[in-house]
Amino acid sequence: MDAMPQWCEFFSADEYDIFCTAVDDGLSLYGADGQDIDGGYVEMAAGEPSIEIYPFALSALAARCRESDTAQWSDLCSSRIMAWAEGRLQREWLTETPFNEVEALLEVWLYSRRELMFEAEPDHPDQPFCTQVADGLYACFVAVVPDIADAPTMHSFVPNSAVSAWNLTADELLDSVRRCLRRLPPPVWEKHTTTFVDDQQKLVGSGEVYFGSAPDGVDLPVSAWALIIDEVTPAPLVPAGLLAVPHRHLLLVGLPCIDAEERHFGTKALRRYTAQSCDNAHPDHRISSLYYVYRPPGSFVSNRELRQT
User: Fold this and answer.
1) What domain range is 177 assigned to?
2) What is the pLDDT along the chain (309 residues), one digit of tens a residue?
3) Which of 97, 170, 219, 260 could disulfide-link 131, Cβ–Cβ 3.0 to 4.6 Å?
4) 81 assigned to some structural domain
5) Does 240 reside within a domain?
């Protein structure tokens, strides 16, 4: 190359070759090698909980290498690339930033179990902070972390270390994300009816279930609204209604029924839709095949728990 790219014009041709090799070796650890870096960036899969392809700027890394002995460049590049790929920069930012600056960036994602990012105890400082909200239902906290130096804006799990630094309890974090949910438009509801027949194909009953999806313009998975479900349902869940979260992008609600037969078929309908939706969901989006009897405010009892009583 006759002239260096403007973002690393301090390199000689030989130094640039060494730097390119060091970057490519670091990228190879994540299957992202073979890129042309003349434009001053590389693209890598990163982010939590949904992995996407992001661009990472190389100018700061190049400047740091230029200030160090060339024998160190391979380690410097590998270390920085590992930090990009594994979310270390975002975890550090969340841990070092006051909660009042992070609160508006928080989201809650629901899972069927505690989410772990690597083989270590759940209370390891770098593991995602999660709390159980019902039988088979866990809330994990995610933040939209802004640009950090050479890393772009991306989602990141909130680590245990950050919650410890903020000196907050799980209930306080849940209250915070509930406040955020209340500031958003409610889910969009669509009523579905399913019918049931006997062995002679004679109609014996039907049940109604409301399908909830995220409102237009909102990227947050609709399953999050389960945390304030009695505030956003099509009708009050009094004295009790049914709720299921088969996957990240669907809420199912069965309204209260006074009539025993109507309640029976309503429960069968919700159970059928829950099983179908969970089975058909992408594995990464699947949450649970359980359904819950919900009594305001905030009481979830799963069908599994009901069988055990």
Assistant:
1) 90-182
2) 568 899 999 999 999 999 999 999 999 999 999 999 999 999 999 998 889 999 999 999 999 999 999 999 999 999 999 999 999 999 999 999 999 999 999 999 999 998 888 778 889 999 999 999 999 999 999 999 999 989 999 999 999 999 999 999 999 999 999 999 999 999 999 999 999 988 888 998 899 999 999 999 999 999 999 999 999 998 899 999 999 999 999 999 999 988 899 999 999 999 999 999 999 999 999 999 999 999 998 899 999 999 887
3) 170
4) yes
5) yes
- Say if residue 59 is in the same domain as residue 13: yes
Number of domains composing the chain: 3
Q: Record the pTM.
A: 0.89
Nearest CA-CA partner of 125 in 92, 97, 89: 92
201 shares its domain with 292? yes
Domain boundary among 62, 86, 110: 86
In this structure, the dihedral spanned by the alpha carbons of residues 237, 239, 242 and 245, taken in order and rounded to 10 degrees, is: 60
Ranges of beta strands (E only) in the chain are 41-46, 52-57, 106-111, 130-134, 137-145, 154-157, 188-197, 203-213, 241-247, 250-254, 291-295, 299-302
Boundary-marking domain end, from 124, 152, 182: 182
